[in-house]
Amino acid sequence: MAAPALAQEQPLKPLDINLENYQYPFPVQYLQFTEQGQQLRMAYMDVKPAANANGKTVMLLHGKNFNGAYWEQTAKALAGQGYRVIIPDQVGFGKSTKPEHLQYTFQLLAKNTKSILDTLQIRKVAVLGHSMGGMLATRFALMYPETTEKLVLLNPIGLEDWKRKVPYQTVDQWYQNELKQNYEKIKSYQTQNYYGGEWKPQYDRWARLLAGWTLNERYPIIAWNSALTYDMIFTQPVVYEFDALEVPTLLIIGQRDETALGKNLVSEEVRKTMGNYPRLGKETAAKIKNSRLVELDNVGHLPHIEAFDRFITPLLQFLKL
Questions:
Q1: What does the DSSP 8-state code read for residue 92?
Q2: 23 DSSP 8-state letter
Q3: Angle between helical axes of 72-80 and 308-319 (0-180°, round to 10)
Q4: Are the CB atoms for 274 and 259 separated by under 8 Å?
Q5: Are 259 and 195 in contact, with CB atoms under 8 Å apart?
Q6: Are 44 and 86 in contact (CB under 8 A)?
Q7: What is the pLDDT of residues 265-297, one digit of tens each?
Q8: How many other C-beta atoms lie within 10 A of the C-beta of residue 41?
């Protein structure tokens, strides 16, 4: 226990805007393209099967406050079972470009993600999305049903329409809030919202990844992209389209999760009606025709970090069906 505790006390390391000074768990490749009048690069990892390739591919889509690196343990487990694993960093996240201006839509992110698969000549994938990645995975499956063999939603956000309860925030308001971020605020938010108030040393690396950016002189560009993607999440719900999904779908829902955008902007009475994942999981499973629901008691927003064994078992079972 001494080593992780000591690591927690080390000075925070400033991180480059595209994480050039942060090593990912697998080799990183880049897709270059032009979008809205600017040259962009989208980073991704292509993890080959560790043994006995089964010819199947799984694509892992990260959440809002993360990047592809947090899928390391998941990717190793999948590769060990013979799967090829594709792990993109969306534009605006991780090692991908942070544009100075971009109209973000989930359709655009899905198109960019499909371009990686096309480049790699991958025609069929199982798509696993966590948090914001769950919204993107849903949009991807709706846009590219012929490509999506299976869909896995891991504590996805967007299972409810927050704009019906939360006052609209402009991009400038989101931006001003992001400019105030620091390690203490990030850790406090993640402790309460992700881990049920209990912080463990192994969680610290993911808080430090975000906090390291706040020490970069170009952090305002990162904060601006974060504000743009908050606006995307808030104004582009997928909740009304779950019944249009045709692919076999697995919902893995940590029951202690209470994540909801804009909770701090509403009354206590309204707040109590938001982020009820035990209820939202059941409601969403009922909307998706060919779905199954796995409920993980006493697990929060990040089952693949907090309770890996309880997450990976139902995932592998579903993929092998």
A1: T
A2: -
A3: 40
A4: no
A5: no
A6: yes
A7: 999 999 999 999 999 999 999 999 999 999 999
A8: 14
